[in-house]
């Protein structure tokens, strides 16, 4: 008789009886899988390099959300119906297609290698953090997926009969082509697949993702397939095989091509499960193999899932919430889940990773993070990470500084050690400054400052700040510079300069502080009183005309702005809201302008420039209730427990960070100013478990008192603060903030 | 003062003074590089895996002998003018395009990666065994090439200025596409290039040739280029780079594709030489690296060439000739050189090689040979190897038996461990039997016999002998079998069965001897008295009609025959010439038929079926003079010291073996009958140095006495043999044969 087992049994029984749902159980990975949220319901570990997503965006059956017929940035769309496999590296919530490759697919009967023929409809999709399953209608196969950090694991339950598992290296979401595949043994395949040219940029930086796939049962037969391009020359007349797929049975050497794959086949006399473990790496096949062996080894599918589920639960339990509906909790924890996907791990188990720009393999003792969509994330995401996961945030800053060491520049939109140069501005400085000002200082501060100044000042060959010369000289980037979105770019440089100013101030560099602070206010030169908006200007100082401030909504191209129009950029000066109000004239006029934006459909919840707008009412005394109302209306309208429950691209967690803050009742309006503005929490009580290595307190509670009405009082440790703003330090070093409604 | 140097100097001086030209100096690698000889003038070591050939068959400048505009099987055509690089693996004297890849090209100035743009005219070509050089007009660069067994070495002499060396993995002679390239260091590139689908067959067996390239000077800059296929989808509209070549500077990871390459660049302040060593392997990149290091290592270009030249001289000095013109000696030694190219070494330095059909890597302690064009070579080539290089011939037989061990069948037309199934018949049995009967017995005789019988008897799934069932039942393959060339196929099976019979007899298996000997005569059933020729037959015994015996010359397709017509196959029954004569009716009628064939243009010197015809006069007493005359006329007409100095494809040395025998005055008419028939030698004296491990005598002399007239007497060790036939054993165990003319 085993006493330990009994005790353990009683413990679990006890847990079930008390039965508060764990944080992890509130994750609904289907949120954001429609309405261009661009998330996927696949299985992933926190900040995983590998993930396993169902792939249902190929083939005319999936029109109009079909990958080749439009700009589509996700491997999965919830309303689609035709599944052609399971991808093993994926991006989540981004706006451009990439990754979505290394595709497995179980089938039965005769082998078919063309996804248009082997694809299938499906039923019974289930997804939770670290797990996804589906039944494939055509084959009566149940497919399940889980993942560790660098290994995607699938389990296929086949009926009796001939069963196949395909590894398709042709099909993929990325627009890059080409790969290599090699059968190492009847239970092991290795190779790589090219990815890259994110947002159709920098194709010369395209790079391989390496993999090693292990099957729990050795193949009875295996083959490589290869469909070369159709030969057009005279010689085609002698090629009986021209344009046809080659099936290379038992082939064991490398095969390269754009339409290649491997399959293993079995003959089962009864229902049988096969597990497939795919280790990935951006360094080498050998590292992919080591990642697989060290991280997963002989663990079963269930063991991997258990471990990953626990990791998720631990990560998500950083915040506990009370009150709110089940749906609200689901929205909240799913958002938190979505913030733990990118930036993700780039380094292998052994610490190796591809350096940026050098062609060398680097080695890190910490985590090398990748996927820095900084134009998005500098606004709120990293602030949230500093609060909830300061160790991760520190690692992210250190990763950015490694990049500076490697290629001489801080990142702009980094993806797997390629600089995609997507979007505008110089956002890394903002993130680093903000992190420091929130008390997370364990990085090389001198190097960080040097890197910031280089981006802010190097006139020639500066990849981060095109147009810098005239920006410094005139205070703005002009229309005739031909630089896309000169107004937006000016504003972004202002925000970055403000962050540098604050960093300089903290480091005691007073002159620098003055210089950059002054630079940060130059957007004002673009304020046109006629429109009471920022307006594009020529380098000679004349206004750009004809000027239509409405032009540019919904990503329409326009002169002046990037992904937005004059309304959506009007108040994107978060470091100078008071100054902005002065430009407009008065609090009242400012509030009227804000109201107009919301009420006349100029507010875009789906894109970053204006996402702080609802909180700006807090800068106008007496109008704070409008912030409270707007924020709650926006949460209710755009953030729901449905596949369409994100307003648009999650932007690697930026939208999710917005709703997490909004639901907690605080928001970090000004990057590189360590404070929050306050609105009504959704929950009655929010308990944040702070990391004691970075914060004095281990807990921060935000408690709502009263359920209706507007905020009448905010108390910190029982004392009314008489403000709708609270410093980060003050908040975190207090145990509790009460938000009292009446 | 260095005594050794002086001694050495005196030695060389002495050599020069006595100044008999060495055998190696009589090699003219340009012979066969025009008129579809399909040889190339590139540098190669005896039986080398690697070779470095100039590549001048790409680009419209080379029309009509341009690789994409016709069936062209060689990397080089003598009359072409536009050179686009140097290939590092090549086939010689074959009829189908393959290999001709891993191309280096020196250029100067701005880098151009498109061969149509970087190609150049050239002057001052020089070639000898193991060495080739040329001046590239556009660049004023001298390019030189040499090779060891598995390493191609080039040396480029650049003028001062910007210099580049390209490694083009897109361009090639093979119709296969695709490869991989990776810069390992500024002086090292590794990768592979796909080859295969020889004769447009078996594309699913296409395979990589691996390489490692080392540069004597590290690149100052390097890049990979990749020109992906043009994207046709909707997304192409966002790809500014669509269809353009990508230059990936400093890129250090694997790049795969159909149009890829790497280049290194230098800036030289004065004329500078760069040496490039490229090790190849059919097993792996690691083996290619080891081949390079172990075979060449730090040796200079000159050292490699010296070593290879010595190896060639040693191999060619197996025969010494006296008399004859310089041109005749050149034709002779170049032919001997051409017999030492294929079959070539397949195994790496460490003994590893790709097995045939298993997907595994095998290991051999001897040499694993490859490129067995057995339909050609069974007729005379292996007989010559048994005489001159018995150790090589034994290794070839053992290689064939390894193949049987690996995939269960003897080879038919094996190329780099793929069975191309080119041509018809079951020729390996003939080669093995003939080898044994010539006294070379150091192989597993029981296994060889088992392998032969399997090919001769297995009815189902027999890849060597399609149509075997009706062949055994009816004695011939019928027109309605739909098997290509049923008459030719029947004859080939007869020849193989004859060889098996002789082998059985030698092994004391009398019943088997009777069975197979009887089978070997079944071609007689196809003899049609109406035409006095062999004629295709239906399975019901009726003759195929309408029958045009002339149809099928010059490779025209026809019913009945493969690569030939009824005339060219009429007497391809070398094991039953006496019986054949009886069928025709009389010696006189036979001679008349032979004369008709020669005089009416039905004889084809360029293809194998009828190449023994000129010797057949020897079977008709009193007409032997006709053999002597025909043979000398054919030598004079078809074998000259000119690029067009081969009658057509060398067929991996078969044509060369023909002329070597013909010039020595002996010819092995009947495969698997160890004897020679005798005609007039070209040379006054031929001295063959026999291998004492296989032969009792160390020397065999064939001496011609008298220069005009016909053979009046043949003496062996001074004794008139009163015959135009001599046994192999008798000849080799005698010291000398005198052929006396008057």
TrEMBL record, chains A, B:
Record key words, sorted: Calcium, Signal
Domain (Glycosyl hydrolase family) ranges: 287-741
GO CC, one annotated term: cytosol
GO molecular function terms listed in the Swiss-Prot or TrEMBL record: carbohydrate binding; peptide-N4-(N-acetyl-beta-glucosaminyl)asparagine amidase activity
Required cofactor names: Ca(2+)
SUPFAM superfamilies with a match to the protein in the record: Six-hairpin glycosidases (SSF48208)
Single Gene Ontology BP annotation: carbohydrate metabolic process
Pfam short name (any one): Glyco_hydro_92N
NCBIfam families: aman2_put (TIGR01180)
Oligomer status and interactors: Monomer.
PANTHER family: PEPTIDE N-GLYCANASE PNGASE -RELATED, SECRETED PROTEIN
Name of the molecule in the record: Alpha-1,2-mannosidase
Organism encoding this protein: Zhouia amylolytica AD3
């Amino acid at each position: 008789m085993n006493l330990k087992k009994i005790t353990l049994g009683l413990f679990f029984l006890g847990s079930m009886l008390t039965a508060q749902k764990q944080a992890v159980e509130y994750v609904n990975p289907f949120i954001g899988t429609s309405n261009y949220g661009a998330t996927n319901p696949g299985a992933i570990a926190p900040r995983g390099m590998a993930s396993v997503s169902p792939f249902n965006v190929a083939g005319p059956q999936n029109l109009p959300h079909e990958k080749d017929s439009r700009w589509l940035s996700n491997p999965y769309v919830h309303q689609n119906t035709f599944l052609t496999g399971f991808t093993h590296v994926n991006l989540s919530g981004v706006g451009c297609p990439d990754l979505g490759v290394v595709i497995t697919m179980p089938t039965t009967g005769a082998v078919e290698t063309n996804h248009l023929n082997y694809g299938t409809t499906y039923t019974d999709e289930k997804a939770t953090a670290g797990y996804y399953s589906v039944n494939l209608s055509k084959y009566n196969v149940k497919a399940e997926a889980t993942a560790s950090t660098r290994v995607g694991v699938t389990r296929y339950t086949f009926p009796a009969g001939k069963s196949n598992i395909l590894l398709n290296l042709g099909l993929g979401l990325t627009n890059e082509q080409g790969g290599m595949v090699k059968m190492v043994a009847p239970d092991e395949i290795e190779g790589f697949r090219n990815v890259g040219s994110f947002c159709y940029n920098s194709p010369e930086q395209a790079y391989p993702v390496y993999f090693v796939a292990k099957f729990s049962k050795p193949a009875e037969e295996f083959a490589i397939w290869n469909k070369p391009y159709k030969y057009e020359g005279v010689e085609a007349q002698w090629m009986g095989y021209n344009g046809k797929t080659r099936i290379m049975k038992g082939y064991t050497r490398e095969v390269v091509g754009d339409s290649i794959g491997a399959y293993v086949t079995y003959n089962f006399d009864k229902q049988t499960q096969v597990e497939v473990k795919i280790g990935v790496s951006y360094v080498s096949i050998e590292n992919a193999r080591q990642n697989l062996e060290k991280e997963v080894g002989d663990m079963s599918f269930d063991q991997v899932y258990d471990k990953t589920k626990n990791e998720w639960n631990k990560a998500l339990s950083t915040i506990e919430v009370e009150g709110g509906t089940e749906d609200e909790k689901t929205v909240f924890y799913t958002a938190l889940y979505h913030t733990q996907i990118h930036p993700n791990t780039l380094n292998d188990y052994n610490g190796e990773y591809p350096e940026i720009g050098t062609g060398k393999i680097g080695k890190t003792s910490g985590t090398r993070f990748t996927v820095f969509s900084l134009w998005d994330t500098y606004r709120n995401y990293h602030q949230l990470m500093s609060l909830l996961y300061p160790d991760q945030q520190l690692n992210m800053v250190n990763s950015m500084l490694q990049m500076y060491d490697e290629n001489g520049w801080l990142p702009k939109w980094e993806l797997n050690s390629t600089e995609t140069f997507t979007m505008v501005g110089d956002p890394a400085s903002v993130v680093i400054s903000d992190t420091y000002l929130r008390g997370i200082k364990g990085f090389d501060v001198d190097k960080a400052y040097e890197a910031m100044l280089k981006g802010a000042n190097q006139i020639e060959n500066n990849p981060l700040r095109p147009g810098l010369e005239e920006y410094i000289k005139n205070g703005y980037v002009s229309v005739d510079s031909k630089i896309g979105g000169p107004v937006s770019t000016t504003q972004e440089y202002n925000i970055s300069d403000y962050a540098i100013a604050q960093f300089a101030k903290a480091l005691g560099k007073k002159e620098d502080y003055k210089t950059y602070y002054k630079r940060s206010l130059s957007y004002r030169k673009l304020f046109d009183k006629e429109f009471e908006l920022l307006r594009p200007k020529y380098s000679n100082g004349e206004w750009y005309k004809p000027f239509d401030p409405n032009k540019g909504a919904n990503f329409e191209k326009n002169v002046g702005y990037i992904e937005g129009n004059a309304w959506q950029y009007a108040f994107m000066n978060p470091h100078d809201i008071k100054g902005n109000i002065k430009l407009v004239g008065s609090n009242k006029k400012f509030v009227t302008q804000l109201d107009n934006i919301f009420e006349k459909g100029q507010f875009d919840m789906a894109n970053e420039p204006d996402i702080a707008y609802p909180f700006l009412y807090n800068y106008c005394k007496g109008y704070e209730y409008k912030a409270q109302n707007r924020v709650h209306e926006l949460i209710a309208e755009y953030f729901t427990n449905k596949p369409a429950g994100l307003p648009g691209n999650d932007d690697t967690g930026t939208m999710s960070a917005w709703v997490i803050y909004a639901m907690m009742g605080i928001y970090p309006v000004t990057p590189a100013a360590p404070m929050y503005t306050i609105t009504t929490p959704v929950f009655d009580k929010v308990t944040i478990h702070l990391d004691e290595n970075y914060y004095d307190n281990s807990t921060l509670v935000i408690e709502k008192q009263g359920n209706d009405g507007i905020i009448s009082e905010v108390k910190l440790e029982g004392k009314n603060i008489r403000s709708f703003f609270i410093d980060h330090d003050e908040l975190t070093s207090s145990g509790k903030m009460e938000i009292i409604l009446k």
